[in-house]
């Protein structure tokens, strides 16, 4: 069932307490639309400057729009550049007009970003993660002002706290935890256990990325119908 947003090892580290910014890129592919490709239970579409409504499969989202998920709910988006985003329960997620930027106000999101699309950022209220072609998860808890950023690929994901005073580059199987404006530490987590237990990677076959290379695995998942 798609109810758990992180593996057991990640959840154990969540109590401890992350953030980023950016690698240069040669080209920028703007995010112009996203299509809702999967839904589970209660998901709401948050149109920019319009009233929220229940989301439907195949709804098309424009820059500035967002999604929110209720308890035990999940949503999947596919963007015009091939990026895939999966949101777990209690998530609030938007993409910013005329940029390659995402905003996560609560909950957990898994991002698979194909290589060659340009610099991408995902921001929570207390961290920024700078990304190129990468697979990663980001979690934000509003109650504790805590962010977790975890890397599934060796792609130079860089995390920075909101004041810009701390930065951390992640390797595959590493995550950084930030509370308020303080990076609390860098931790290793079990990638195999993550693939086996996280609902957010269900059906994506990312555990085969070691044989094919992370770029190939991400590209394959992004192209799945």
What does it look like?
This protein has helices at 8-14, 191-197, 209-212, 214-223, and strands at 34-40, 43-46, 53-54, 60-61, 66-69, 74-79, 84-87, 92-95, 101-113, 120-123, 127-131, 134-141, 146-151, 157-161, 167-170, 174-179, 182-188. Residues 1-25 and 209-225 have low confidence and may be disordered. The protein has a 17-stranded mixed beta sheet that branches. It has a single domain, classed as Jelly Rolls, CATH 2.60.120. The longest helix has 10 residues, at 214-223. Helix content is 12%, strand content 40%. With 225 residues, the chain is mostly beta strands.
Rg is 16 Å
Examine the secondary-structure arrangement and name the CATH architecture: Sandwich
Number of helices: 4
**Helix and strand composition category:** mainly beta
Helical fraction: 10-25%
CATH topology descriptor: Jelly Rolls
Task: Report the sheet-strand fraction.
Answer: 35-45%
Low-confidence runs of at least 5 consecutive residues: 1-25, 209-225
Biggest sheet statistics: 17 strands, mixed
Return the CATH class: Mainly Beta
Provide the domain count. Answer: 1
The string of secondary-structure elements, in order, is HEEEEEEEEEEEEEEEEEHHH
Rough outline:
globular
Span from first to last CA? 21 Å
Count of strand segments: 17
Average pLDDT for all residues:
84
